[in-house]
Amino acid sequence: MGASRENIDLKRLPRHIAIIMDGNGRWAQEKGQDRLFGHFHGVESVRDIVEGCAELGIGYLTLYAFSTENWDRPAYEVTGLMELLVDTIRKEVETLNKNNIRLHVIGDMKMLPDYAQAELGEALELTASNTGLNLVMALSYSSRWELTEAVRNLARDVREGRLEPDAITQDTLHQYLSTRDFPDPELMIRTSGEYRISNFLLYQLAYAELYFTNVRWPDFRKKDLYEAILDFQGRERRFGKTSAQIQQDLTAPEGTF
Ligand code: IPE
Ligand code: IPE
Ligand code: MG
């Protein structure tokens, strides 16, 4: 039985979905093709999923496209990926604007080749006034990189007297993260049958529901997204409380607390 869009409760959508788009290389190799062939086809999935999220009215979609560790892959793959990235962004800006989608980027942009930085900067600017789906590309991103940056900037502010150590709260730390403008993901999807986080949003995923599927990223389509969302909607999110408390919260009239 395929998951269908009609079964999704639009009032209980995850506000933010984060996806580790994995399995491009294996998908290609299983077809006797080069890994880049898989990345190339992965773009089709990105299009479909972005469209699917926009249609549903999801607020934020973060896509893990390239990790800090991925720089250590063979040079031809890294170069191919960068070219694909720039090419795709150039081609898609118009569609993003048509669909009111705003592009954001998180990650160490300084590591990207100049032409990629320039192209990205332009796309960010051109979509900056869109108010629909927020599409966050995690590029040259890793959580440990992000946390190290945050600590470095925070330490600098303390040294320069802008911040009191005793005044540091979770909200303060949040302000130093590259995700400061986004709510935490509520649903995290990883494709291709790997059960790990691979340095993705370690802090922000604290209470995300995790969903793993064997589907390789180039095969992942809207119906797979719907299946993940339906699975999410069937879960009880307790945030450390008991099930009874959660049930009571759900039935209590507003303003009870
Ligand atoms: C995910 O697919 C895309 C990137 C990491 C850029 P992979 O390239 O990791 O594919 P597998 O995991 O080797 O199959
Ligand atoms: C995680 O996938 C990074 C991206 C999807 C961009 P990897 O394929 O790099 O992760 P590992 O190496 O399997 O943990
Ligand atoms: Mg992989």
Mind sketching the topology for me?
Blueprint: E1 16-20, H1 24-30, H2 35-56, E2 60-67, H3 75-98, E3 102-106, H4 114-126, E4 134-141, H5 143-159, H6 170-175, E5 187-190, E6 209-212, H7 222-233, H8 243-251
Parallel strand pairs: 1-2, 1-5, 2-4, 3-4, 5-6
One 3-methylbut-3-enyl trihydrogen diphosphate (IPE) binds near residues 22, 25 and 66.
Whole-Å distance between the termini?
Answer: 41 Å
Strand count, sense and closure of the main sheet?
6 strands, parallel
* Ligand catalogue: 3-methylbut-3-enyl trihydrogen diphosphate, magnesium ion
Question: Could you tell me the radius of gyration in angstroms?
Answer: 19 Å
**Which spans of ≥5 residues are poorly predicted at pLDDT below 50?**
none
**What is the chain-wise order of helices and strands?**
EHHEHEHEHHEEHH
Report on this model:
This protein is α/β, with parallel strands linked by helices. The chain has one domain (15-141, 185-251): 3-Layer(aba) Sandwich (Undecaprenyl pyrophosphate synthetase), CATH 3.40.1180.10. Helices cover 43% and strands 13% of the residues. It contains eight helices and six strands. A six-stranded parallel beta sheet has the order 3-4-2-1-5-6, with helices on both faces. Strand 3 (102-106), helix 4 and strand 4 (134-141) form a beta-alpha-beta unit. Helix 2 packs parallel to helix 3. The radius of gyration is 19 Å and the shape is globular. The structure holds 3-methylbut-3-enyl trihydrogen diphosphate (2 copies) and magnesium ion. Residues 20-22, 64-67, 70, 194, 196, 198 line the site of one 3-methylbut-3-enyl trihydrogen diphosphate. Residues 21-26, 66, 70, 81, 192, 217 line the site of one 3-methylbut-3-enyl trihydrogen diphosphate (IPE).
